[in-house]
Design goal:
alpha+beta; Alpha-Beta Plaits; Immunoglobulin-like; 2 domains; five-stranded antiparallel beta sheet
């Protein structure tokens, strides 16, 4: 399936020293009438894979959108500032790109790395994880199932029907605890995985993907299976 992907890189006069949370907050406030920017409908959270994600790399903000999210980002004007934790940071550079990407199942096995910590566990499967934590093989089986579940959630949000079996091979380890709001702590992981599925570079999987977690990049750079088609 062909999908459109838009990226906007924003560099300010001061580096952003956080994850994508304050960037998401800024755009969520700027476009309160568009739930794609903030993931809420009224006071209720939308339980759906986000079509716009916010990340921070090297102190610069990166906003990525797919499909409807890409269309919205294409209309984003040049900004004078980003408000990060109640402080206005002047924008000194803003670059936008749009491309068409082939998304979905592929005959090739592609290797991806998590460039930001992947948060694959929720309250329910965290209990399952703790039961098998000292059994490496069982841990891998559990986390591979969770990763495939992340892929299925992403596919559903993008209107893509998975008609074949997704095969994933994980090579990851615990990265540490990510502190979330209300003193909630989430286990994160780092590493790479092989999968028969095309995922856009700089797109995130798992919990808190809208805030920059679980962002992946293809390791096979330069090979046809990694390129926009």
């Amino acid at each position: 399936m062909k999908i459109e992907k838009s990226e906007i890189w924003i560099t300010c006069d001061k580096p952003i020293e956080s994850d994508g949370t304050p960037v998401r907050g800024f755009f969520g406030n700027l476009y309160r009438n568009r739930p794609e920017f903030h993931g809420h409908r009224g006071d209720k959270l939308i339980y759906k894979h986000p079509l716009i994600q916010y990340k921070v790399f090297g102190g610069s903000a990166l906003i990525v959108g797919l499909k409807e999210g890409a269309y919205l980002l294409k209309a984003l004007p040049k900004l004078n500032y980003l408000e990060i934790y109640h402080q206005k940071n002047q924008v000194i550079k803003q670059n936008a790109t749009t491309e068409v990407f082939t998304f979905g199942m592929t005959e090739n096995i592609i290797t991806y790395s998590f460039t930001t910590p992947w948060i694959g566990l929720n309250e329910e499967n965290y209990k399952d994880y703790m039961k098998v934590r000292k059994k490496p093989k069982d841990v891998v089986v559990l986390l591979e199932k969770i990763l495939i579940g992340n892929i299925l959630s992403m596919s559903k949000a993008l209107g893509y029907v998975v008609e074949d079996k997704i095969k994933a091979i994980l090579s990851i380890k615990e990265r540490g605890i990510v502190e979330f709001k209300n003193e909630v702590e989430l286990m994160s992981f780092q590493g790479e995985f092989k999968i028969n599925f095309l995922i856009p570079d700089f797109w995130g999987l798992g919990k808190l993907s809208s805030r920059g977690y679980g962002t992946v990049r293809c390791n096979d750079g330069g090979k046809p299976q990694c390129q926009t088609q």
